[in-house]
Fold these 2 entries.
Entry 1:
Amino acid sequence: MNTRNVFLINILLAVLWAAYQDQWSTNSLVIGFVVGYVLLSILHRGYGSLVFNVVSYVIFLIWSILKSSVQVAWVVLEPTLKLDQGIVAIPLEARTDLEISLLATSITLTPGTLSVDTGWNAHGEHVLYVHNLVMGNAEDVRRSIKQDFERRILRITRGGNGS
Amino acid sequence: MTPRDIVIVVFILAGCVFMLVSAIGIVRLPDVFARMHAAGKASTVGVSGLLLAAGLYFYDEFLMLRMLALIALIFATAPIATTAMARAAYRTGPRKRKHLHYDEMAGDGQAPQTHAGERVNDPVG
C-alpha cells in the first residue's frame, strides 16, 4: 500500500474519531488525526517519517520566508540601494515534475530569490535558473539552495535521507 | 488590552508594514525583476498577516480554518504567476536584463535577442 492510501486512511480515522464524540469539533478532529498518525506510523514503516518531513519542511519554509522578508525589507529601505542582481543556474537532482515545481515554488515564495526558468546548461545538466536580489558569491547561492531546499524536498518525495 | 488584542495588533502592524515596504520597493527598485521581489512580499507575508489578524479578532474555529486555507491557497498560487511573469520578462527583451550583474542564463544560450511576436525556441515547454 503506498503512502497516499495510508494518508487517506489517516483522514478517515480522524473523521471517525470525531464522529464518535458527543459534539463535532475541530479539536477532536485534530486529536483523531494524531491518534491515527501514531497507529499508522507503527504499522507502516516510512509513513511516520514522511509526515514528520512534510511538517518540518513547512515550518522551515515559513521561517525562511519571514527571515528573508525582513532582509528584503531592509534592502528596500536602506538610503542607498545596494543591489547585486544576478541569475544563477542550479543543477537539479530533482527529476519529476512534482519535485521541480515544489522546488521552484518554494524558491519564489522566499523573498530575495525568484525562479525564472528551467533548461539545460552547457554541460547538458538540467538546471533551474534563480534570480537573486542581493547575490554575493554564485557558489554560496547554489550550495545554500541545494542544502536547504532541494535536500528537504527530496527527503519528502523519495523517503529516507534523500541523496 | 488583553494579550489577544496585543497579538492581533502585532499581526495587523506586521501586515501593513510589509505592504508599505513593498509599495516603496515597487517605486524605488530599478528593474522588473527587483520589483517582482518586492511585490511578492506584499501578496504573501502582508496578506497572510492581515488574514491571521482577522481570524483571531472574529475568533471561531471554522473561520480560522478558512483563513488558514486562504493563506495556503495564496502561497500555492502567487509564485506561479510571479515565475511566469519573470520568465516572460526575461525572454521579451535584452533591455530588461541590463541591471543584472551576473547572468548564467545568457551564458547557456537561454537569452535569445527576441522581439515581441517572434517565436522562441524553447527546450522545456
Entry 2:
Amino acid sequence: MPINSLFGFCSNMDNKKLVSTVAANLGRSTKDVSKLLEAFAGVLRTRCGEMDSVIVPSFGTFEPKKRNERVMNHPSTGRRMLVPPKIVVGFKISGVLKAKLK
Amino acid sequence: MNAKITFVELVDLIAESTSTTKRVCELFLRELFSTVSQALIDGEDVKIKGVGTFKVIHAKPRKSVSVSTGNAIEISGHNKLSFTPDKSLSDAVNLPFAQFETVFLDDAMTDERLEAIDKEYPSLFDQDLPAVQKAKPTGDESLKEPEENQPEVEETPAEDVKKVEEEIPVPEEQPVAEAVPVEEEDSSEPEKTVEPAHAAPVSRPMLIGIPIDGPSQPVPEPEPVEEPDPDEYFYRPAPRNAYTPTAEQLESMPNKHGKRMWVLVAIGVLVGCLLMWLLMRSCGKAEHSSGNVIAADSDTVALADEEPIVTETITDQNVLSTMAAKHYGSQWFWVYIYEENKDKISNPDNVPLGTVLVIPPAEKYGIDANDPASLKKAQNLSWKILKGKN
C-alpha cells in the first residue's frame, strides 16, 4: 500500500496512483491501463490539434480555443510587446460533475 | 475541424489506436473518469500523464450586484475545477502557431500604427480555414516589420552598392582557383528548365513567418568575420540569387542595431557563419543531386548518389515548418529544407500547393534538435532568409 494513501485527504492523485487504481478496479494489468491512457492522450492530442472538441459524458469537454495576438506591457520592464496568437486547450466541466463538486 | 467527438467516437478512436475491442476501451474510459471524478470530489488533485492536471479550487463567497434588480447579493462559496493541460498536449495543439515568439515593439510602433495595420489587414483569425488562419499572423508580422524598419532600410542600399563594387576586384582573381562552382553551374542549368512544371497556379501563404525580434538580432558583432562571406555568395554560381539579399542584409544589419551587443549570441553567430559557409559548399552539391532527381522523377522516392531521398508534398496542413518539426524535431529547421529546395521555392512564405520537396538527411546540415547551437544556427539562418525576402 502506498504511503501517501495513509494520509487520506491530503494526498493527491498522480498518474501512477490513477493507473493503479483504475487497473485494480478493472482487474487489468497496470501496463494495459497505461497503454490505454496513453492512447487516450494521443487521441486528445490529434483531435484537439485539428480543432475538434472531445466530449466525455458526465465529466466535461476538452476544447481547443484560439487566442488572438495582443499587445501587452512586460510586467517587470514595462516594455511593450506583441504576444503571438496561440491555441490553448480548455476544459469545460460538465453539469453533472459541477453539481457533485459543489 | 470544430467537430465534436462524442463518447462513442472516442471509444472507436482509442480501440483503433490500441487495437483492442471497443468494449475494453469503453469500460476503461468509464472507469478512468469515474475514478478521476471521485478523486476530485474527495478534494484531491489529479494529474494524468499526457492530458494535464485537474485541481479543485475553492471560490470564496463574494458580494455582487444582481443584474436585474440592482440589489446587493452575495454569491455563495463554491468549488471550481481548474485544468492545466500537459506540456505535450498544449504543444501538440499549438503546433500551427508554435513558431511565433513574443516580439518587443519599438517605440516607433505606436498604437495608431498598429490600428492602421489591423484595419488594412483585417483579422482572418476567426475563419475556419486552417491555412488562412495560420497564414494571417504570418502576413501580419512580415507586414509590420518592414514598415517598422523602413526609414533605416532606405539608408542602406547606397552603401551596399559601394561595398559590392569594392569587392568585385577580389573575386575576379579567384575563379581560376575555384573550379567547383563552374561545374555546378553546368549541372544547375538543365534543372532550371524542368522547374516551371512545379509552379502551380494556386498558391497559399505558407507557415514560416518567424517573428523578427528586434533586440535579439545577433548582428553587430559578426560583421568583420562575415566580410569574406559575401564574396562567396555573390560569385558562387549556383545559389547566387537567393543569397545576394542575405549578404546585403548582413552588411546592412549593423546600421540598424549597432547599439545592441549580445555577446553570447554573437559568438554563436560567428560559429554559425563558419558552418554556414561550409554548408553553402555542400549545398551546391545538394542542388546537383536534387536536380537529377527532378529530371528523373519528381513525385517518388528516388535514389541519388547512394542515399534514398525523402520527399514531402506541400499541402494546406503540411508546410515547411511542419515538415521540419516532423523530420527534425523543431520547426526552426525549415531553413534547411528551403536550402535543399531553393530552386523550387521562390518565396518561403508562399510555396505553391503541391510542390514536392526533398527532405535532406539530418546529418547533412548538422541538424540536431537537442543541440542549442544547431537550433540557434537555424534560427539565425531563417532570420536572415526572411529578412532578405522582405
